[in-house]
Please model this.
Amino acid sequence: MTQPDHASHFIPGTDPAKSPLVLLHGSGGNEHEQIPLAQELAPGSAILGLRGTVSIDGGHAFFHRFPDRTIDEADIAARAPVLADFIQARLDSLGLVAAPIAIGYSNGAIMTAALLLTRPGLLRAAILLRPLSPFKDDPPVRLDGKRVLILDGEKDSRRAAGDGRRLAERLRKAGAVVDHHVLPCGHAITPADRDIAREWLGRT
Model:
């Protein structure tokens, strides 16, 4: 598959002790969308915002869905390694040697889960906001000790009940240390998401 290059936006960090953050936006978003959230959650961290290469809803996404909104697994499987290579090359070019923490929302959370399952050494940890499993059958990888935070919305009309729980169970079976919360909200990110993510990042 020939894919266009990923666009990105980098903000240098002011605290070298903090892991860099890699941000993956939701459907229709862009590389700037999650930067205010990241700055709120981890002040002083270096931030790399990414743009998906799929045009959708006047913005971008990281992979295609079918008309019924199910995931095109072949598409996400083809795009994940390209994105992983881009992230690693971009971090190297910026002189960032520490493994990053990814923050993915919606479409970006699903792609972040795909990165964990296909390139487990790329990320130090991940926050998945409103995710679901990217693959019907997960690759045979080990995520021993990898820390993952999953935040679901109980009233999320874009997700089936239990989507986040099922992903959490699959990641745990691969050895990840998963914190999973179901919040009384919909698909949008809430103050409760921010509070939990900030506390989690503080001990990660």
Q: What stands out?
A: The mean pLDDT is 95. The radius of gyration is 15 Å.
